[in-house]
Amino acid sequence: MTIEKRGRIVGLTGPTGAGKSEAAHLLSEAGIPVVDADVLAREVTAKGHPCLHELAEAFSPAVLNEDGTLNRAALAAAAFASKEATARLNGITHPHIFRLAEARFAALWQEGVTLAAVDAPLLFESGMDTMCDRTVAVLAPAAVRQARICERDGITSEQAALRMHAQPDEAFYRERADEVLYNDGDLAAFRRAVGAWIAHLQGGRYGE
Questions:
Q1: Mean pLDDT score across all residues of the chain
Q2: 3-state class of 56 per DSSP?
Q3: How would you classify the pairing of strands 8-13 and 134-139?
Q4: Nearest residue to 21 via CA among 205, 146, 194, 197
Q5: Which ranges of the chain does DSSP label H, i.e. alpha helix?
Q6: How many CA atoms lie within 13 A of 138 on its CB side?
Q7: Helix orientation angle between 157-165 and 142-153, rounded to the nearest 10 degrees
Q8: Are the C-beta atoms of 33 and 140 separated by less than 8 Å?
């Protein structure tokens, strides 16, 4: 299914702790609707969604609770046991998330919206970048990201490092994104940079 484009879509991504959520918040404040892929992921794993049946078939009925809801701990144990299992999980969930995102954007175009964004940690891995007119990655120094994750989630430096190592490195995003917003720790400077970037988006002046 292909969206009948009536507006432009900006893809927003980046590793944990870089500041992607702040950029998404500033987009929303500027009046640009943001479709959150994490929210869509929760929707497609809600009770009764066909995705749940596919997950149970692919892994085990044990990934469902007795009431038909998702047992997230059981799914995580099964799906992250190997790279192959994780690929199987993504192969099931990503198409559902993609189709739901398409529906969200189609509804926005019907409302007359001309510019919207998708906030997706796995923008490139899921293929959601293919629906975007422009992609931007929010990046930050590893040490800065690690400190932010520890403060945000109340975990140790070692636990934060494990999360960071589970994600692609900075080069992955730089090679794929059309633009990079660098967030080195100065929040005020980052907000100014994002504000200038948003002004370009709203003026249609991509990449200037």
A1: 91
A2: helix
A3: parallel
A4: 194
A5: 20-29, 37-44, 50-58, 72-79, 83-110, 123-126, 142-153, 157-165, 170-176, 187-203
A6: 31
A7: 120
A8: no
Distance CA 114, CA 33 (A): 10
Task: Give residue 177's identity as a one-letter amino acid code.
Answer: A
AA identity, residue 149? I
Q: Are 91 and 59 in contact (CB under 8 A)?
A: no
pLDDT tens digits, one per residue of 56-109: 999 999 999 999 999 999 998 888 888 888 889 999 999 999 999 999 999 999
**Is the pLDDT at 170 greater than 80, yes or no?**
yes
Q: Which two tokens stand for residue 4?
A: 């009948």
Residue type at 151 in one-letter notation: E
Please list, residue by residue across 176-202, b when 16 or more beta carbons sit within 10 angstroms of its beta carbon and e when fewer do.
bbeeebebeeeeeebbebbeebbeebe
Three-state DSSP string of 68-116: CCECHHHHHHHHCCCHHHHHHHHHHHHHHHHHHHHHHHHHHHHCCCCEE
Question: How far apart, in whole angstroms, are the C-alpha atoms of residue 87 and residue 75?
Answer: 13
Residues 105 and 157: beta-carbon distance below 8 Å: no
Task: Name the CA radius of gyration of the chain, rounded.
Answer: 18
Q: What is the pTM of this model?
A: 0.86
